[in-house]
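Forum > Structural Biology > Help requests

Title: Can anyone predict the 3D structure of Universal stress protein?

Hi all, first post here. I have the sequence for Universal stress protein but no way to get a structure on my laptop. I'd be grateful if someone could post the structure tokens.
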Amino acid sequence: MRAIYATDLSAASEAAIHNETCLECLERIGVEEIHLVTVIPSNMHAGMPGMNFEERREEGLNRYERVMQDAGFSTDTHVVRGTPHRRINGIADAERADLTIVGSRGQSPLANRVLGSTARNLSRTTVVPLLVNRIEREADDPDVLREHLFQRVLYATDFSENADRAFNAFSYLRHATQEATLVHVESPKEPDNDTDATDQLATLEGRLDQWDIDTDTQVRYGDPAEEILEAEAEVTPTTILLGSRGQSRLRRLLIGSVSETIIAQASSNVYMVPPPRTA
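Reply #1:
Sure, ran it for you. Structure tokens for Universal stress protein below:
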């Protein structure tokens, strides 16, 4: 597998990249090649006093590259200019990446920090599965909140085609997963489903049992985002796994807002699987 690792060279990024357990989890799910990417925003200019952006960021990426190589990954680095989420998506597409990784501290009074806004924008537009690695929010010397990335997975499903695509990620996540909680939320805004949700979850549970993953199921009732976050608080997963139905405005209104809310507010890492690439 090939991963894009997006970093702004902040203390939060430093914590994630230097966490050996996180890197071991990526190796277990099959990541062999990592492209380190940092984006200089368009509004930062080389002529600004004391700002040699390219040189400073290349030095930072070179430090990270040595960490990745020492951990056994094949690596490459990219220092680019532009809008962060667009350039990250462009590199992921060009390199035919299997996933994109970005660190985020989640919601805070400074909600528009570059990294936080990038994670939010990637959740809307990513062309490959997106792993949001959660970092401590207020600490001066931050660390990752859930270093065993895929040990305990909370999988949220609405039984859609793309939720099924997200579930299929267990085919490789299982190498690092010990426990899973499968959650479906019955929403009053959604039409009734003729198939019983409990039966559908039991079928998925049976598939995970074959991989010796200790599995529990929940059918909840209410607002999907709120119920998924409540389930997270109860079971404290290391990662929430879910799908996104796409990028159109209508789809975002229906379901994209759920994945965006989870990425913004969850304490756990989030692994979001988007629809297939268009030709």
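The chain has two domains: 2-134, 152-269. The beta strands are 2-6, 33-41, 74-82, 99-104, 130-134, 152-156, 179-186, 214-221, 239-243, 269-273.
Shout if anything looks off.
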